[in-house]
Design brief:
Low-confidence stretches: none
Strand order of the largest sheet: 1-2-4-3-5-16-6-15
Number of domains: 2
Bound molecules: nickel (II) ion
CATH architecture of the largest domain: 3-Layer(aba) Sandwich
Mean pLDDT: 95
Number of strands: 16
Number of helices: 9
Largest sheet: 8 strands, mixed
CATH class of the largest domain: Alpha Beta
């Protein structure tokens, strides 16, 4: 059998700084897990972070409401790192000793791990900086409300968190990847998902005389079939734009054409540019498809988030850091997810990348995100800190 890679021992830079701190961070994460907070209500989480960062001699800046940022090091910002801090309105069913004490709310998406990883990175880099100046600044953003649409990222950006920031990196737990590995991908790794609601009104009447009515049942059917069809010819097919209806309702009698009707669905898209163009086309396409039937059409199109598109350079940066810290085989390819992630807003004008953090115990139970029984392998926390702190150090070196 041929060996395509030469196995070399990892040369971790961050790990020696982390070992003493890790037990405290595990406790910190368990405390967050026991006290999860919903989007824009992460007050206790924010206080805990501020308290710990200040105790280390750092100067965190609180954002309006909840969330914070902290700058570590000195001089120009080399990179920002973002961790989301909110939990979900789901009942926890893990049976863990540190399970949620806030009934009906749980960290079922692993944001407690993201938050604690970012805290660990801040503490490790600060300790390094005190021993010998880093030569640059790493900005860490503890972002509230990732789980809402369109997400807390926008309010962070409005508050200036990206000023002077040349790139941004982030992570997300992935229960399908083994602990000790990270998943990466250049290009889009999440998808856009918008909501579409359409109301139709027209003159109803007897089904024996449709020519005297505006037959909106017929028009609804045309919109259901032809709006997706037209978009598939007007938007780049590689973008995977798909309109799928989840609701359609009109009428109450077999022989009466109703005066109003309703339909709703989602528009998903794998590509950022196509998401913009599909959104701009949508109203026109709906109106034109319905036009021959003379009905009144009102479209409500709610934008979700764009896809997260990982830049080539920043993806390579994370991969190199992961190989150096965790070993040659620490990086696996991750598929694009159809889920949405508001980290995408940070990437509107900046290069950056999000990595997947393996949280699966090899040979152990299979879990999924957004479920009440979601459990992470806690070793993932240390690996996340190693990889992203090492990646941040590399961006300082490149200043
Ligand atoms: Ni999440």
């Amino acid at each position: 059998m041929r060996n395509f890679t030469t196995e070399t021992e990892p040369t971790p830079v961050v790990k020696p700084w982390l070992d003493d701190l890790l037990p405290e961070l595990i406790e910190f994460r368990r405390d967050l897990h026991a006290h999860p907070e919903l989007s824009f209500k992460e007050f206790r989480t924010t206080d805990k972070l501020v308290e710990r960062l200040e105790a280390a001699g750092l100067e965190p800046r609180r954002l309006e409401g909840s969330g914070l940022t902290v700058d570590v090091g000195e001089g120009p910002i080399a990179t920002a790192l973002r961790g989301d801090i909110d939990a979900l309105p789901i009942i926890e069913e893990t049976g863990l000793a540190f399970a949620s004490k806030n009934h009906g709310v749980t960290h079922a998406c692993g944001h407690d791990v993201h938050t604690t990883s970012m805290l660990g990175i801040a503490l490790v880099l600060h300790a390094m900086h005190q021993e010998s100046p880093l030569g640059g600044t790493v900005r860490i953003i503890f972002q509230p409300a990732e789980e809402t649409m369109p997400g807390g990222a926008l309010s962070c950006i409005e508050q200036g968190v990206l000023q002077g920031v040349p790139r941004i990196l982030a992570l997300h737990c992935d229960p399908r990847i083994n602990v000790g590995k990270i998943g990466t991908r250049i290009g889009a790794i999440t998808s856009a998902s918008d909501t579409i609601k359409i109301e139709l009104t027209g003159r109803g009447g007897h089904t024996s005389r449709p020519h005297l009515t505006e037959d909106l049942v017929f028009a609804l059917a045309q919109i259901a079939v032809n709006v997706p069809a037209v978009l598939s010819r007007r938007v780049d097919v590689r973008s995977g734009v798909s309109v799928v209806w989840g609701q359609i309702a009109a009428g109450s009698a077999p022989n009466a054409i109703p005066a109003n009707g309703y339909m709703a669905g989602t528009m998903r898209c794998l590509d950022r540019d196509a998401w913009h163009s599909a959104g701009e086309l949508l109203d026109d396409v709906v109106q034109q498809v319905a036009a021959p039937y003379g009905v009144d059409v009102h479209l409500e199109h709610t934008r979700g988030v764009p896809p997260v598109v990982n830049s080539e350079h920043e993806t390579a940066l994370i991969e190199a850091a992961a190989r150096a810290e965790l070993g040659e085989h620490a990086v696996v390819l991750t598929p694009q997810s159809m889920g949405g992630e508001d980290f995408a807003w940070f990437l509107a004008d900046l290069p950056g990348a999000m990595m997947r953090l393996g949280t699966h115990t090899p040979g152990g139970e299979e879990y999924d995100l957004h479920r009440g029984d979601f459990i992470v392998d806690e070793r993932a926390l240390g690996f996340a800190i190693q990889v992203l702190a090492a990646a941040a150090l590399r961006t300082i070196r490149d200043l």
